[in-house]
Amino acid sequence: MSAKKTILIVDDEENTLRGLKQGLASAEGPSAYRILTADRAEKAVEALQQHSADGNPVDVMLTDLRMPGMDGLELMQIARKISPQTQTIMLTAYGTVENAVEAMKRGAFNYLMKPVNLDNLELLVRQAIEARELQTENIELRRRLEEKYGFEKILGGSAPMQRVFESIRQLAPTKANVLILGESGTGKELIANAIHANSPRRAGPFVPVHCASLAKTLLESELFGHERGAFTGAVASKPGKLERADGGTLFLDEISEIDLDVQVKLLRVLETWQFERVGGLKPIKVDVRLIAATNRDLGEQVKARAFREDLYYRLNVVSITVPPLRERRDDIPILVEAFMAEFAAANRKKVSGIAPEALDALTAYEWPGNVRELRNEITLDMLPAQFKAARAAPSAAAEAPGAASGSVLLPPGTSLQEAERLLIDETLRKTGGNVSQAAALLGISRRTLHRKINEFGIRPGRDGAAARGGRPPSS
Asked: Is the backbone peptide bond immediately before 401 cis, with ω within 30 degrees of 0?
């Protein structure tokens, strides 16, 4: 509990005021509380107004229920308008059930009978302060969530994005599972967060799981949790993301990467909303809304038997397709302005704007990595060379495919795995080891590329070459 909480004591009996003030001061020490007193409700209103205007609103108000003129219930109603987070404890010598019920109905935190037991008073004041702090934290958290994730804050005025906004408005209030489709970097998690933040579940948790970054065994434990001793290293029981999302929303990003065995368990959850932890026997029931996202064609995955058809239909109740940035070029100036303002504020630099020719180059570029690539590539003082090339005449390499320097030429009989490794290796060479740029050029997420780098033992270098072996980077 932070220092200097403000307590306002209101009572028309001078001895009661003095006794309560001394009791609270001695219980917590002379500097623990800032204690104010008022011998009538009208003075209390003045104190509430003054401290609220000064930015130091009263945390807890102790008020007698029956006083000459304005009584405690009326004072509490006025206090709630002046300072909504102030917690009120009623003091009454008329301790009937009716008095207590009426006070609680109107918003009192609790009540105490006179003569007041100081131990009970101290406990109630502590509890009221904790309730006030929790309420303030929740309000601030809600404000931040709405500012960051409220769909009105998703940038875009283009027609394709307006259709996305309308889908969010329609789907957010429902219980339906949602499948978000779109290329890497289009902002699928932001869309999922917006659906949650505008749904009846907004007070519950939003729990994301990035499926592509986890191996099968790790993903199973991450989703469903595990019991102690379920596998080597399981030294304690651990709840999974499904349990953590109870009462809220579970977001499964890159769901196409889930192993078929895990798909079976996930399908059972969607049918019964029950599961067991890894190594457990006790069924656990949850109330969760599922939102999934993928940059792949799940229909094609089903045909290739890489994704279960029954799970696909469970997930694809309704879908939202997030357009790639090249299909919403009208939004690029809006995004550029927002990102520049963000970076300028973070670096304490003043940016007056962007040159028209630079904005033209940004708008002309194809943005294979979409909004994520745009945000990563914009700096305050320069633009990478590839943007200038977007406005230039077609290159010789474009006129003669395969003739460009650094092309990967594969002899017949090369395995798909080796071809994938060579392509990733060459792309990392081209980007000088920049994993974010390589992922954008390959059209996959950075997490997927990290997994492939680990799998193939590639070590991206900063000298323009990608070395084999060694430990991959962390970013």
From this structure: no
